Amino acid sequence: MDNQILLDKPSSRQWWWTKIKDFYQGLLISGLITFIIYCALGASIVNVLRDYELVLWAVLIFVVFFLIYTILASILYAFGWLIDAALNDNESERLRLQLFATIYWAAVTIPVLAIGFLVYIVTKAPNSFIL
């Protein structure tokens, strides 16, 4: 392998560019599912602990945090392309698919796990956490 990282391989770039639509669709679906879980759990679990209302500022905060998360997930996606370009000398489709699947499922499940963690914190220490 050369000392130069092969970032300009057209096949690597094209492959990752065609998959980015699937990646963002997964993030969008994950965000919607996370928001639905947040609303449902907020109405059921948090309402038992104290008054709960889904107000506009809470929705806006959720959207802002999800946009920040989307930027971080995009950086993770870019690392996948860089790893592929640097290490995949024989253009292995199998390696690309495994790398994409790992990054995709990590990025899609993190928001849902974060809501689960939030629910855990609220139910364990209800008076010390404000939604």
From TrEMBL:
Source species taxonomy: Bacteria, Pseudomonadati, Bacteroidota, Sphingobacteriia, Sphingobacteriales
Keywords in alphabetical order: Membrane, Transmembrane, Transmembrane helix
Organism this protein belongs to: Mucilaginibacter galii
UniProt protein name: Transmembrane protein
Transmembrane segments: 23-49, 56-83, 103-122
